[in-house]
């Protein structure tokens, strides 16, 4: 393990600059793109599916992308990273579409049933992936994409994740359309918005973001599930108003998890998937209990509300006193 020091970079040390440009900077950019992309993808899927528990993890998007990578390894053993990305894009889009088509055909009395169906569907896709991996002796080759980590991110191996940037920009451009579609098919038709077109366009954007991250980093769960929910608890459900906050918080969350993974057993490194999985599972349980108890009610800062009520009460008392004295 080689340390990069700011003093050496400032002094113009060629070796330190090479390590920084080849390894450290690409890793930082991959972390930021992963956090921004996965949280945005989760926000889009939750808005379009009208369910706060839907995400690339619970919507079989990540599992479908892994299946595409395996198919690329089987049928194109000499394939490049971009070729595998194409397979991952196709299977992630198809898997997400099938999941949404399925949940639209079934009426669920409880919102929690939707992500449970998605998890089961993802496990089916994962079972097919594992079977094919064992059948064609590709288990070891596939293992790099089963657990997310940034240890192999270097210049020339991560640039695909830059696709997150234009996809997030598209999501911001069509944010109002996603809001309208999230209110239902009849509401969309009344406002002149093509429901199916916007729905599948949004799901395609979310699937492509997820696939680009999985190809470079691997599977990272919970980011697209917990980050949009936490932001929505304080900022509301309007996607245009929360998209920037969700992307920023997602980037910070992944960066903090990566720092924890590098510090816990230093000089060794824990996979980011392990750290995010532990923290994400605990936060998800808390969100689940909160949603079951309070529904989609936003969090209000108690101190601010108390101070506001106190100020209003004092103003009322003053006005009342002034009225009596007059």
| Class of secondary structure makeup | mainly alpha
Number of domains: 1
| pLDDT averaged residue by residue | 80
Content of β-strand: under 5%
Which class in CATH terms? Mainly Alpha
Q: Could you tell me the CATH topology label.
A: ABC transporter involved in vitamin B12 uptake, BtuC
Indicate the CATH architecture: Orthogonal Bundle
**Would you identify the CATH H-level superfamily?**
ABC transporter involved in vitamin B12 uptake, BtuC
SSE order = HHHHHHHHHHHHHH
| Cα distance spanning the termini | 80 Å
Radius of gyration over alpha carbons?
A: 23 Å
Principal-axis shape: globular
User: Low-confidence parts, pLDDT < 50 over ≥5 residues?
Assistant: 301-326
Helix content: over 70%
What's the β-strand tally? 0
Q: What is the helix tally?
A: 14
Largest sheet: none
Can you tag this structure with a few keywords?
326 residues; mainly alpha; ABC transporter involved in vitamin B12 uptake, BtuC; 14 helices; 74% helix; 0% strand; globular
SSE layout:
Blueprint: H1 6-10, H2 14-49, H3 61-75, H4 81-105, H5 113-135, H6 139-146, H7 164-173, H8 175-181, H9 185-190, H10 195-216, H11 223-235, H12 239-263, H13 272-294, H14 302-325
Characterization of this structure:
The chain has 326 residues and is an all-alpha fold. The protein has a single domain, classed as ABC transporter involved in vitamin B12 uptake, BtuC (Orthogonal Bundle). Helices cover 74% and strands 0% of the residues. Helix 2 runs antiparallel to helix 10, helix 3 packs antiparallel against helix 6 and helix 4 crosses helix 10. The C terminus is likely disordered.
């Amino acid at each position: 393990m080689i340390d990069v020091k700011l003093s050496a970079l400032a002094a113009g040390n060629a070796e330190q600059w090479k390590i920084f440009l080849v390894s450290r900077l690409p890793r930082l950019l991959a972390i930021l793109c992963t956090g921004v992309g996965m949280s945005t993808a989760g926000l889009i899927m939750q808005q379009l599916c009208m369910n706060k528990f839907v995400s690339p993890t619970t919507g079989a998007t990540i599992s479908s992308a892994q299946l595409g990578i395996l198919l690329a390894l089987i049928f194109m053993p000499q394939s490049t990273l971009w070729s595998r990305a194409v397979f991952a894009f196709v299977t992630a889009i198809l898997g997400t579409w099938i999941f949404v088509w399925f949940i639209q055909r079934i009426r669920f009395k409880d919102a929690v049933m939707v992500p449970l169906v998605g998890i089961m569907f993802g496990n089916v896709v994962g079972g097919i992936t594992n079977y094919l991996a064992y059948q064609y002796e590709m288990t070891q080759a596939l293992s790099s994409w089963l657990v997310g980590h940034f240890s192999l991110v270097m210049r020339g191996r991560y640039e695909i994740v830059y696709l997150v940037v234009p996809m997030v920009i598209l999501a911001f451009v069509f944010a109002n359309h996603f809001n309208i579609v999230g209110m239902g098919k009849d509401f969309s038709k009344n406002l002149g918005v093509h429901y199916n077109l916007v729905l599948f366009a949004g799901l395609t954007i979310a699937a492509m973001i997820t696939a680009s991250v999985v190809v470079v980093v691997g599977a990272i769960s919970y980011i697209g599930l917990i980050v949009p929910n936490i932001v929505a608890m304080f900022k509301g459900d309007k996607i245009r108003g929360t998209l920037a906050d969700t992307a920023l918080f997602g980037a910070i969350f992944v960066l903090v998890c990566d720092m924890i993974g590098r510090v816990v057993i230093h000089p060794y490194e824990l996979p980011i998937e392990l750290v995010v999985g532990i923290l994400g599972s605990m936060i998800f349980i808390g969100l689940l209990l909160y949603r079951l108890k309070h529904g989609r009610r936003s969090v209000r800062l108690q101190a601010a509300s108390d101070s506001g009520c106190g100020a209003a009460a004092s103003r009322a008392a003053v006005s009342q006193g002034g009225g009596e004295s007059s």
